[in-house]
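Hey, can you fold this one?
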Amino acid sequence: MLTSLRLRNFRCFEGVSIDIGPAFNFFLGANGEGKTTILEAACVLLRLQSQRSSSLAPVIQIGKKFFQVSGKFEEHELEFRYSTLRRRVKFDEIEQRTLGEYLRIGRVVSLANADVELVHGGSEARRRYLDFLGAQIDGTYRPALRAYERALRARNALLKSPVPRAREVVAYNVPLIEHGRVLLRLRIELARMLAPWRHGLTSALAPVVKNSSSDFFPAPATISGAISSGRTANQSVYVRQLSVHIATIWNCSSIIYRRHSLPRKGNREQSRWQ
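Sure. Predicted structure:
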């Protein structure tokens, strides 16, 4: 377990050091004093990502150029330093070129009031939840996600240029298809893994619901199919519409955690996620 935590230029903390006990640990204070920030720092140290934000740039304290979190997990010393120009990860005081060994050390389960957005909010919160979970369960998830996001940002930058060059935009088909397929497959697997847990919680919270099921509904078209369909159109139209194809698939390929009642059959109520 995590036994110590040190923050530097991390949100409201310019510098703080915390010792963590072996049992329950409570942080008491008024609103805005940094209780949630301490929990976020522990998550960033162990997983190199925040449970509160999709980007780490806002975590840097206003007026500073970087943040640093470090601490001790069991017998290992961990350190993560982040700036908009460079990231540095140290494991037992040795800088790491790859993150595999570092990320195998700890796991994080985050519970917060904002989690209600998984049910009532938009698809972005649910995608972020699946990404956070997938990166901890499957070692291929995080690299695929990062590669997909890099290709997507580069392609979108080309589309925003005054005169988009179709050949350069099309060059990003391969990485988008390759990594997009991996993410789609892993998200389907995650949905299946979550199904028994959801069923158990549904039974405990709503005993009257005797039968329920969970399903993953991806977009009607595959990523490769959407991109390929664009090739049959005029190239200038294709350049403008390619982002719509991908964005539609990316938004639809997520789980909506709302329960929809279907027509009753006798006394049996059916429900599904879509």
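The first helix runs from residue 35 to 47. Let me know if you want another pass with a different chain boundary.
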